[in-house]
## 1
Amino acid sequence: MRRIFKNMGWLLSGRGFNAVLSLAYLALATRTLGLDGFGYFAIIVALGQTVTGLVNFQTWQFVVRWGAGTDGPARAAGFAVGLDLLSAFVGAIFSAILVYTAQLWLPLPDELLWVAFGYCIVSLLAIRSTPTGLLRLRFEYGRATAAEAVQPLIRAIGAGLAVLFMPSVTGFILAWAAAEVCVAAALWYAALQKDKLDLGEVSLTAIPNAHPGAWRFVLSTNALGSLQIAAKQVMILAVGAIGGEAFAGGFRIASQLGQALVQLAQTISKAIYPELVHAQERAAEIARRMANVALLGGAIAVLVALLFGREALVLIAGQGFRGVYWAMVILAIGGAVELVGASLESLLVSAGRAGTAFIVRAVPMALAFALLETAMGWQELKGAALCLLGASALAVIGFWVAILGQQGIRIEVDGDDERETRAAK
């Protein structure tokens, strides 16, 4: 637990640095672009992150899972790099299709289509899950945090330059693209200080040949990661498709401020996953204790959103975004729910039950998208936020039920002695 809290401390310090700078570049973008312009910006960023999220494999988990075993970091990283190259190839094709058809369902002007396609390609080339996994495998959270701090720093500098020299959607997208490239380069540099990448180990067959269930785990974690992207980025696109660019911009603001807790949940998940892999016999106890801590933190954060959220929205984004307050509060409650569920989800994945975790997330998310148009017709942005809140609540309940269901009785026989022990299957 001490090491988990130490690792969380490094991750949270990075999140804190990111949060402070994100307020600065968010204020610059919203006040420079206005409600509609920021909506276009939000749609393009969501397109890039959707493409990357859907095709990108969660390679950091593979590096931690197999790099800690007999395969070693080199072979695990080689498998992860092979998957990254596959992601970039498939993602480029997907980006072309998505951007080509964008005007059929998204409020995106002609002049921004090439900007959107370029941002998608840059995001694919800047995939950085593998070096992140190498750093977490070595518990180098401090080094990883320093490298990841490059992204908000470049975004803030780029946003400032955009205001001065190119106060347009294209200017801000260029700043975001530069940040993606720089943070990827920083993470690879930090990771290669500890582990050298052997290009001869790049293979999509070595790990699966040694571990028959490898592809099932790979596909399950990829699908699970895709659902997490759908919960935010695809939802922004869907809100924009239904309500227009102003709704997309408003929902992004509400999401970024209200769902900061979801990022905190992901931080907890990233800190706890390596520990659960290394300490399977104590995994359930670690997850339970982390969930208790998360419950208290989530309650405090929701209270802060209720008391100070409206003033924060006006201060950061301006009066034009004042109407998204209640959507932000609802998303904050959803973030608190995700915060509690983060350790439960990590417990399932670390136990090799990523497929179960995917199903538990997929069903509520599908229901949320099915009800989205009706909910927005009823309560506009608040309706969209309620869809996400409901999906999060059902998913966390499902994680809890799945964990309870895997508890069983195992009879072990040792010579003439027979003893009964409770254990996770």
## 2
Amino acid sequence: MNILFVCTGNTCRSPMAEALLKKNNSNANVKSAGVFAGKGAPISSGARQVLEEEGIEVNHQSQPVTPELLDWADLVLTMSEQHKQSLAMQYDQWQGKYFTLKEYVAGDQAAADWEKLKQAYTEIEEKRVQFINDNRNKYEADALQQKLYEALKEDLEEIHKLENELPSFDITDPFGGDVTIYRDTMKEIEKNITFLLKKIDDENRDGK
């Protein structure tokens, strides 16, 4: 499997994820890149330090995301939802490969939660359009908006509840932080790399 990790500048989170996966799995082909990365920058000193504390030597140079990298990858794992959205907007032909790292390892439950929220958005939009069509001639603009809010209040509260229950799928960005922040981010990535390895092993065992 070819796995591409993506963050912003390809100097902190994604090279840490690349290094940690390479350390724990020699079967996967792993690369990293950044949605706004320059070419040839070294890994950040904080990321280098915390990796070296774990016995991982890194010789890394940043690179931007390119169509060639996305075509090469079987799986593109981003460090945040924003990174995933940026890729989807710029390179929509590979959308089926894009997941945040946390989203991918969370599996079916995460997908079900997002699907439930998307359905709620769809239903409230349908109700909004229907209400306006049915009542546009009954009220002035301000009154119509107030009546619309009253009609959709319970739906809005349900959406707010669903949004609050969703887990964050972002890996904390340590950029600009001290070495403690980098250690925390590395632990966060390492935990999810462990889940990733288990998921890959399970899928290989099932013949997927």
